[in-house]
Amino acid sequence: MILNRKQKIEKSFGDKASSYSRYAILQKESAQKLCGFLPENTPLNILEIGCGTGFLTEELQKKYPQAQILGIDISKQMVTACRQKFTGYVNLNFETDDGEYFESDKKFDLIVSNLAVQWFGKPVTGLKHLTKFLNDNGILFYTTIGKESFSEWRTILQDLEFPSGLIDSPDYSGIFLEDKKTVSYKNALDFLKSFKKIGAHQPKENYTPLSTKQLKKACDTYDAAYQGKITWHILYGALDSSGRAIKR
Questions:
Q1: Secondary structure letter of residue 245 according to DSSP
Q2: Which of 130, 132, 170, 245 is positioned for an S-S bond with 174, CB 3.0–4.6 A?
Q3: What is the DSSP letter of 5?
Q4: CA 223, CA 87: separation in Å to the nearest integer?
Q5: Nearest 5 degrees, angle CA 132-CA 166-CA 53?
Q6: Is the pTM of this model over 0.85?
Q7: Residue 173 CB: number of other CB atoms within 10 A?
């Protein structure tokens, strides 16, 4: 059976559901940081897009223990992991769903998403769609990958005139913070394998993988130039129920 891109993404993350929490260090840090920007007033209903194994869910539960929280994820295995992790929490519910095409008769006071919307086919359109499910005074907060993420690896591939499978970042709306973080890996292969450890290794559509010879040349060139240093560019954004940026 030939899988489409969304099915491949679902499978990649699902296969790593049991080990995701061990390796997704930066994802956990961004979830904690995002929660610090959320409103102090307790929302009645919260929707979390791309709940994964529950990094942000855990922060939401601590901050808003009285709120009803619905977490959705495209991966059935991730949803199962959350259900097992949060057994006994009557205010937490989890469902398998694609956040980009989410539909509901219900509206929410708060919608949140941590490092998930970059996997949408059309992230900006998908975010706009989600704002339809906010109450009039509701807010959507999200984090995603910025254009300067992995700039070192992108530069090497560009200089060598090799194709890049890294997903492209569009011009997102409502960005109120850009956070750049330099992470040290052992080498280029360690950096590339870090994506596979959490299931985040599906390349962009129509990507032609590097040959073994090309990959070795790119890794050797990167290692000589950057010694394992990679920039992560994390964007923090907020939109109102009309899809407009919120001034902060």
A1: B
A2: 245
A3: H
A4: 45
A5: 55
A6: yes
A7: 16
154-163's contacts with Cβ under 8 Å and 24+ in sequence apart are 156/218, 156/221, 156/222, 156/225, 157/218, 159/221, 160/214, 160/217, 160/218, 160/221, 162/210, 162/214, 162/218, 163/207, 163/208, 163/210
Question: How far is it, in rounded angstroms, from Cα 177 to Cα 2?
Answer: 39
**pLDDT tens-digit readout, 103-120:** 999 999 999 999 999 999
Question: Which residues in the chain belong to E strands, given as ranges?
Answer: 45-49, 68-73, 92-96, 108-114, 134-145, 175-184, 229-240
At 168 the three-state DSSP class reads coil
- Residue 3's pLDDT band, with cuts at 50, 70 and 90, is confident
Q: String of b and e for 93-117 (b: at least 16 CB within 10 Å)?
A: ebeebbbbebeeeeebbbbbbbbbb
- Give just the sign of the alpha carbon dihedral 53, 119, 114, 57: negative
Q: At what angle do helices 5-15 and 76-85 cross, to 10 degrees?
A: 40
2 pLDDT band, cuts 50/70/90, is low
CA distance 194 to 49: 23
Joined together, the tokens standing for residue 133 give: 């499910």
Question: Locate tokens 């499910």: which residue?
Answer: 133
Are the C-beta atoms of 239 and 139 separated by less than 8 Å? yes
CA pair distance 79, 51, nearest whole angstrom: 8
